[in-house]
Structure formats: C-alpha cells, structure tokens
C-alpha cells in the first residue's frame, strides 16, 4: 500500500506524448508544435520524442481556452509570463488582473451582442412562420 505522498508525486510526474495531447484536446500535433515554437509549451526531449509534463498539458488547455475567447498568442504568453513571475509580485498581479478585466469586458459585450442578434433572429423567424402559415391557409381556402 502506497502513502499519499508517493501517489501525489507520481501524479505530478505524469507525462504525455504529443499524440495523447492532440487526441485529448482535438488539435493536430502540428498545432502543438506551433505553440511550442511560440514558447507557450516546453516539453523535454528524449531523442526525437517530445515528453510533455502536467504543466505543459495545463498550458495547452489554457492556450486553447484563451484562443477560444479571442486572446492573441502574445496575450496568452504575457499571461503565462506574468503568472510565472507573479508569485507575490504586486505589479505583475495588477497587470494580470487588468488583462483579465479587459477580456471579461470584451466577453460581456460579445454576450450582449449575441443575445441581441439571437432575439432579432427569433423575431424574424416568427414573422416568416406567420407569413408562411397565412399563405398556406389562403391556399387551402
């Protein structure tokens, strides 16, 4: 029977291949290599093989999430750098918070716009349905 420390250590030592990450996150190995070339991921090498750590896996997940919400790779890299440096540094934490607040504001505007557009689409669809129903009824009479 193993103790909790040994299990936690094994868990933190978990590694991934590029194929495993590509499959898990539904991206191509080429995309992962691109993120590596941008400095967002830093796998260790065993010959030609890339070995990704839990940290790399988390960074890939955050990179993909950041891209989905419209962050540039430069912004994602800045956030990672700030996080790595921040460990109690007030200035970095303030900048990181400012980035988060900017993204939040953008997302809230987009959400408002999406709700408005969806409402307009629904109204338009209802008008179309009413016109079609009236025309079909007129044909039957």
Polypeptide structure, described:
The protein is mostly helical and 141 residues long. It has two domains: 1-68, Multidrug-efflux Transporter Regulator, Chain: A, Domain 2 (Orthogonal Bundle); 90-141. The protein contains six helices and two strands; from the N terminus they run H-H-H-E-E-H-H-H. The chain has helices spanning 4-12, 18-25, 29-37, 54-68, 73-86, 90-140; strands spanning 44-46, 49-51. The protein has a two-stranded antiparallel sheet. Helix 2 packs across helix 3 (29-37) and helix 5 (73-86) packs antiparallel against helix 6. 10% of the residues are buried. The model has no long low-confidence stretch (mean pLDDT 87).
Got a strand count? 2
CATH topology of the largest domain: Multidrug-efflux Transporter Regulator, Chain: A, Domain 2
User: What would the principal axes of the Cα set say about the shape?
Assistant: elongated
Distance separating the two termini: 82 Å
Low-confidence spans:
none
């Amino acid at each position: 029977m193993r103790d909790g420390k040994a299990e936690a250590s094994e868990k933190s030592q978990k590694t991934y291949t590029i194929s495993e990450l590509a499959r898990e996150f539904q991206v191509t190995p080429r995309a992962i290599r691109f993120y590596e070339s941008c400095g967002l991921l830093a796998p260790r090498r065993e010959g030609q093989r890339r070995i990704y750590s839990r940290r790399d896996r988390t960074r890939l997940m955050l990179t993909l999430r950041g891209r989905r919400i419209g962050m540039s790779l430069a912004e994602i890299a800045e956030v990672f750098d700030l996080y790595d440096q921040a460990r109690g540094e007030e200035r970095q934490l303030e900048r990181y918070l400012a980035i988060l607040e900017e993204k939040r504001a953008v997302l809230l505007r987009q959400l408002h716009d999406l709700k408005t557009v969806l409402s307009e689409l629904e109204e338009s669809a209802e008008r179309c349905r009413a016109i079609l129903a009236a025309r079909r009824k007129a044909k039957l009479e």
